[in-house]
């Protein structure tokens, strides 16, 4: 019984320390907040929120190594912590571990949608995923472009040597032979131009965009009319405007909305291929 009372007192003290930390954080006194959360962790190390609160302070100080450590511990205690997965994703992106960073941000996004589809964090997480995918694509695109150009130069050089050409200035060669050689070089250029198309900015197909916002889907749902909408947008319409489909004007209730998994997978496939090359 004595042990139980001691644990209860420790938990109360830890909560007071957390509240103190919150006050310090609100005043941008991040060092003091870290000390308060650390004391709370010492008293009750199995409370995930103490770890995520301290991680947030480390994030404000750009101490990303500490952010990663605290978030990993928080996730061990609470695998469904949106903030822990989110900040861990940001920390991994700082290390240019884009694939793992996007993976953690994706977990945070899914958990955030389940907890509060209209919450501010859902949009914030989505924007971070967008930036991360663009950076990942940009890095890979730069590498591919360099490799393609290097290969093109090598192929052109080999083709010229094959026909004993030196910058197209070769004496004693018939015009029709030269034309054939120039055509080969042109065809070669077209092949490499085609190979580089995936690294060019791309317009998002209409079917991957919400009919209301015209923006690419994040969390698509389909109405009985067969039209898909962004979940947060259609819910906002139903709550503020009325219970009807904004396009067909048919009666529509939230319970009739169904996740459009096919479109969601199509969006993911598009982003994986193009890396959000149109840059958000």
Automatic annotation (TrEMBL):
The UniProt entry, under Pfam families, shows: TPR_8 (PF13181), U-box (PF04564)
Entry's transmembrane regions: none
What is the name listed in the Swiss-Prot or TrEMBL entry for this protein? E3 ubiquitin-protein ligase CHIP
Which Gene3D superfamilies does the entry link to? Tetratricopeptide repeat domain, Zinc/RING finger domain, C3HC4 (zinc finger)
What is the catalytic activity of this protein? S-ubiquitinyl-[E2 ubiquitin-conjugating enzyme]-L-cysteine + [acceptor protein]-L-lysine = [E2 ubiquitin-conjugating enzyme]-L-cysteine + N(6)-ubiquitinyl-[acceptor protein]-L-lysine
**Pathway in which this enzyme or protein is active:** Protein modification; protein ubiquitination
UniProtKB keywords: Repeat, TPR repeat, Transferase, Ubl conjugation pathway
Q: Name one GO cellular component term.
A: cytoplasm
Kindly list the biological process annotations in GO that this record carries.
Answer: cellular response to misfolded protein; positive regulation of proteolysis; proteasome-mediated ubiquitin-dependent protein catabolic process; protein polyubiquitination; protein quality control for misfolded or incompletely synthesized proteins
């Amino acid at each position: 019984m004595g042990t139980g009372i001691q644990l209860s007192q420790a938990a109360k003290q830890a909560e007071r320390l957390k509240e103190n930390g919150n006050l310090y954080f609100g005043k941008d006194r991040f060092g003091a907040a870290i000390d308060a959360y650390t004391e709370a962790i010492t008293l009750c190390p199995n409370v995930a929120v103490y770890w995520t609160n301290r991680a947030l302070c480390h994030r404000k100080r750009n101490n990303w190594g500490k952010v990663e450590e605290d978030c990993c511990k928080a996730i061990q205690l609470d695998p469904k912590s949106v903030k822990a997965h989110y900040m861990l994703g940001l920390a991994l992106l700082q290390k240019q571990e884009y694939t793992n960073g996007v993976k953690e941000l994706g977990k945070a996004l899914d958990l955030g949608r389940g907890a509060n589809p209209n919450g501010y964090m859902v949009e914030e997480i989505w924007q971070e995923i967008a930036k991360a995918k663009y950076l990942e694509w940009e890095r890979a695109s730069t590498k591919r472009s360099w490799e393609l150009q290097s290969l093109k130069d090598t192929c052109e050089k080999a083709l010229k040597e094959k026909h004993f050409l030196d910058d197209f200035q070769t004496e004693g060669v018939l015009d029709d032979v030269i034309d054939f050689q120039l055509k080969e070089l042109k065809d070669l250029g077209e092949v490499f131009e085609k190979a580089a198309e995936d690294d060019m900015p791309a317009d998002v197909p209409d079917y991957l965009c919400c009919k209301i916002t015209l923006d690419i889907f994040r969390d698509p749902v389909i109405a009985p009319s067969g039209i898909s909408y962004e979940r947060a947008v259609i819910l906002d319409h139903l709550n503020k405007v009325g219970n009807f489909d904004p396009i067909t004007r048919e009666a529509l209730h939230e319970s009739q909305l169904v996740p459009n998994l096919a479109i969601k997978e199509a969006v993911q496939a598009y982003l994986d291929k193009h890396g959000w090359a149109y840059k958000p």
